[in-house]
């Protein structure tokens, strides 16, 4: 299994691969439940909670500045993929269109299909985070979260919600799907924050 699908990092890559991780030779797909089928015509993302309620369409996001990103991707199931090339919208550019209340300290990501995952606002608003619609020059497939997903490179990949369609800003921390089922509240790969203690 290790040799066919995964490999140990070379010495030159070892400082980029968190503890307990192997490098994936492809780009594995892991999903709980069925993949929701959403066209770009019907896709939208809503903002609510400790923020002024607003809904953005696909066209709204395509009108925002588009950026290219190269980021490493770390899954809690012990695989990593280095130098994944994405295109999308910086979270900071998106959030320039959103009015947050001063007591918005957390955000719950909501997805088509009912998936949720939570972030502290400081983890969400980092400059390197983005909404992705393209990977390796191709539109994001449904299996990888298309037409749009969030990517939070500094945390394990379950924090990067596929099929994203909502951001609920909160004053108090609430736990998402995997967090309620034994996963760590934050999920930092270098600290191996895989599961709640």
* Radius of gyration of CA atoms, rounded to a whole number: 16 Å
| Ends apart, CA distance between termini | 29 Å
Average of per-residue pLDDT values:
93
Return the structural class: mainly beta
Q: Tell me the major beta sheet.
A: 7 strands, mixed
Number of helices: 5
Q: H/E element string?
A: HEEEEHEEHEEHEEEEH
Unreliable residue stretches: none
Structure description:
This protein is mainly β. The protein is built from 5 helices and 12 strands. The chain has helices at residues 2-5, 58-62, 91-95, 121-124, 177-180; strands at residues 6-7, 22-24, 44-49, 54-57, 67-74, 79-90, 106-111, 116-120, 130-135, 138-139, 149-151, 164-170. The strands form 2 sheets. Strands 1, 2, 5, 6, 9, 10 and 11 form a 7-stranded mixed beta sheet that branches. Strands 4-3-12-7-8 form a 5-stranded mixed beta sheet. The longest helix is centred in the first third of the chain and has 5 residues, at 58-62. It is globular.
């Amino acid at each position: 299994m290790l040799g066919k699908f995964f490999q140990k990092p070379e010495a030159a890559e070892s400082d980029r691969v968190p503890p307990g991780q192997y490098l994936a030779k492809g780009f594995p797909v892991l999903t709980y439940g069925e993949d929701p089928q959403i066209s770009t015509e019907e896709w939208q993302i809503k903002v609510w909670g400790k923020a002024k309620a607003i809904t953005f369409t696909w066209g709204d996001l395509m009108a925002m500045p588009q950026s290219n990103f190269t980021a490493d991707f770390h899954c809690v199931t012990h695989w990593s993929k280095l130098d994944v090339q994405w295109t999308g919208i910086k979270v900071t550019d998106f959030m320039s269109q959103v009015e947050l209340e001063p007591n918005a300290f957390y955000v719950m990501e909501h997805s088509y299909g009912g998936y949720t995952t939570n972030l502290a606002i400081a983890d969400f608003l980092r400059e390197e985070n983005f909404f992705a619609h393209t990977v390796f020059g191709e539109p994001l497939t449904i299996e990888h979260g298309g037409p749009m997903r969030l990517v939070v490179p500094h945390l394990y990949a379950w924090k990067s919600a596929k099929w994203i369609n909502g951001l609920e800003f909160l004053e108090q921390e609430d736990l998402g799907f995997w967090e309620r089922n034994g996963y760590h509240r934050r999920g930092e790969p270098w600290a191996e924050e895989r599961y709640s203690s």
